[in-house]
Design goal:
Elements: H1 2-37, E1 48-56, E2 59-66, H2 82-100, H3 103-106, H4 117-140, H5 147-165, H6 171-206, H7 213-238, H8 243-246, H9 251-273, H10 281-297, H11 314-324, H12 350-355, H13 357-364, H14 380-391
Antiparallel strand pairs: 1-2
């Protein structure tokens, strides 16, 4: 019963995380679109930067944006913050339930760094906290006065972190933590910069003063960062389901390419929303980036399987799978904490092994995703046997 309850907690946390992330991303995209589509006209209210007319659900909406604040504070304000807080909170809960609860399986890879489970958890927490502190320091430094230079510095910082994490965690853990770090940066932008600045603006107005325009400018810069980071963070958070992204030799370079691709796609939509000529080149850049990712993933795992025998005897394959895989992928898994075969994939019979030859090749030959963290100690020679067997099957 305990295992069943734990599984449902995992599912509930994941479901909540997806729902709140959709709400946050949706509101973020909407307000960036609104901000970029504003039009100026005569007779706008004092302090207004522009307006936009919109239609949705059969009704018309008249939106007006004030650069700092209206002359008089309205009686009711809608604050857009809970989507961010709920997304981060549910994501951290999922991190604890799934990755911290199985740190020795999902975070630690002895071939990378042989950490105890508590050391992996400590490294995880430290990476999230230090990552935010460095990013925030970059934004508050003189670089923050130049958006282009700040963006370049931020890109270099994130790529350096990605490279570093691949030398601490398993590939799966490293990619997941890049997503978690960027998500932490985005949510902290809301919690520690955007909302506090808005509160200061309101407090100044209520005291009869004039709000500082710098507060709104700083909040807008962080909001724009969140906008450009959204697509990469979504990719990174789902990458743990695709071993060719996280369990191959150049996984940290894939992170760098995805950051560029996501920014290019957002630049296209931001330009369109602002009424500027559509930068169609961005889609060419995104397509080229995808081609680069595919090529990088084809390089194989960290330790490339080479010199595979021309043919492999199926009996040898059965023995390898039985000793390295079937303790989890069986009708009754014997690995602690696993109640049923992951993804319903069973490898405890010859028929099931043959049926899952394709996934075996992706998970254990083209990448080193399985066994997770190589907890069962599969050898390079055994991977070569699997490579030969899966390679000789009809396509």
């Amino acid at each position: 019963m305990e295992l069943i309850v734990w599984e449902w907690i995992n599912l509930a946390a994941r479901w909540l995380h997806v729902i709140t992330a959709i709400a946050w991303i949706g509101s973020s995209f909407y307000f960036i679109h609104l901000d970029l589509s504003l039009q100026k006209r005569p007779q706008l209210p004092a302090g207004a930067a522009g307006e936009a007319w919109q239609i949705h659900g059969g009704g018309f909406y008249h939106m007006v944006k004030y650069m700092v604040a209206p002359e008089q504070l309205p009686a009711r304000l809608t604050w857009f913050k809970w989507e961010s807080y709920a997304t981060w909170s549910s994501g951290f809960l999922l991190l604890c339930v799934l990755y911290y609860g199985s740190a020795d399986l999902l975070l630690v890879d002895p071939a990378v760094l042989d950490l105890p489970w508590w050391g992996a958890v400590a490294a995880s927490l430290a990476s999230l906290a230090l990552g935010w502190l460095v990013y925030d320091a970059l934004c508050r430094s003189p670089l923050g006065k130049d958006d282009a230079r700040l963006a370049l510095a931020g890109f270099v910082f994130l790529v350096a972190v990605a490279w570093g994490l691949t030398h601490v965690f398993s590939g799966r853990g490293a990619m997941l933590h890049m997503g978690a770090l960027i998500g932490t940066m985005m949510s902290a932008n809301v919690f520690l910069v955007i909302i506090p600045n808005q509160r200061k603006t309101i407090a100044t107005m209520m005291a009869g003063g004039t709000p500082d325009p710098a507060l709104g400018k700083q909040a807008k810069q962080r909001s724009l960062h969140n906008n450009y980071l959204t697509l990469p963070v979504v990719f990174l958070m789902i990458s743990n389901h695709y071993p060719l992204t996280f369990a191959t030799r150049y996984n940290w370079v894939i992170v760098a390419v995805v950051l560029v691709m996501g920014a290019a796609i957002r630049h296209f939509f931001n330009s369109k929303h602002a009424g500027k000529p559509a930068p169609w080149w961005t889609w060419g850049a995104a397509a080229a980036g995808m081609a680069v990712i595919v090529a990088l993933s084809a390089a194989g795992p960290r330790e490339t399987v080479t010199a595979a025998p021309a043919r492999a005897d199926f009996a040898a394959v059965e023995e390898i799978v039985a000793s390295r895989c079937s303790m989890c992928h069986a009708a009754a898994p014997v690995w602690a904490g696993i109640g049923e075969a992951p993804r319903g994939v069973r490898l405890d019979t010859a028929e099931e092994i043959r049926r899952h030859a394709g996934p075996i090749r992706v998970q254990a030959v083209l990448s080193d995703a399985m066994p997770p963290g190589n907890v069962t100690g599969i050898t390079a020679e055994e991977r070569q046997v699997l490579a030969a067997w899966t390679g000789q099957l009809p396509r």
